[in-house]
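Notes from hallway chat w/ T.B., transcribed later so I don't forget. T.B. wanted the structure written out for a chain they're using in a teaching module, and asked if we could keep both sequence and structure tokens in one place. Agreed to drop them here.
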Amino acid sequence: MMEGQETATLGIEISGKELDILEETGNDVVEELQQMDGITSANLSLGHTEKTYVIDVKEDAVDDANLSEEYLNQTISQYFSDQAVGELSKEGETVAIKLKSETDINNKKDLLKQDIITPEGEEELSKFISLNEKNIPTQIDHSDGERYVAINADFEGDNLASIHTDINDMLNNLELDRGYTASLVGDFEEQQQAATDLVVIFLISLFLVFVVMAIQFNSLKHPIIILFIIPVTLTGVLIGLFLTQKELNVLSAIGVIMLIGIVINNGILLIDRTKQLRNQDMDTADAIIASGKERIRPIFMTTLTTVGGMIPLALATGSSSGYQSPLAVVIISGLLFSTLITLILIPSIYLLFEDIHEGLKKLKRKKRTETVEESTNQAN
């Protein structure tokens, strides 16, 4: 295999009622998959099957002889099953009396040669039925109450997302009968669903954090300032993953959610102390400088202890390190980067918001003064 290529397996499920249609559609999908670039193999799985005979009724002959399918079914059944005709009581015990055909059916020809009574006399069964050999599954797979067949395909290449998109387009353009569906299943789809769920969880966590901060600060301005750390943190995460050549998997995405709580806590320490100093009538710039000096030590302690605890996991070389190591890299890189930037970014944004706030207050006072002057002039 060429360097940089990956090999993976995907699954396709085709759901519907009739097994014959599912099998036919599945074979069509397999043929299209085998023609796609990057697909190394594709096969249709019907599970375990066994050979059996299926009775096909010759409807025209049955109608001409004034017979019915129910009558044919009863006649054929008597060759293969015992019929209860009564009961016999002996010494207090009841024994069922069953009638068994004396005709032995050992093969297909024996059954077709049997005679059946019709209004016109006896006729051979072969005149009214035919037997066709088919492979019948020993079990029927269901998903959400629908019967389905599975297709497994192996594919390789350095752009798995593109192959996945091509297969999705092929399935969307597939002409299916009403009540039949085709969809991708497997690890790739589960990862996509997990990624979507994590994005939703990330947004919900941000909303909850914002609400809590807004209640605690009794202000919308301070939570917004603190949330400016998030883009910086994500930048640090991407830089760390790029430098270490780690992948952004589900576990590393969970690490991002964990990281958000830590870096926001650093911002809260800084903003909360600034607010306390300003309540003591300290100038805005002096309050920011003082809070930075007082809070830099606990912020660094939090950062270094967390980073130190994650270093062994980041450097691990065990069997599961390829999956768990990205989580540690995300926390280490994101936390170090955001901590250094936070001490500059948060004060800058805080001053910017204060300048905007002061500018709006001055503009409001100016409009109020102009309104008072106009009222005075009109009164004079």
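Follow-up for T.B.: Confidence is low (pLDDT under 50) at residues 1-6. Might be a good example for the class.
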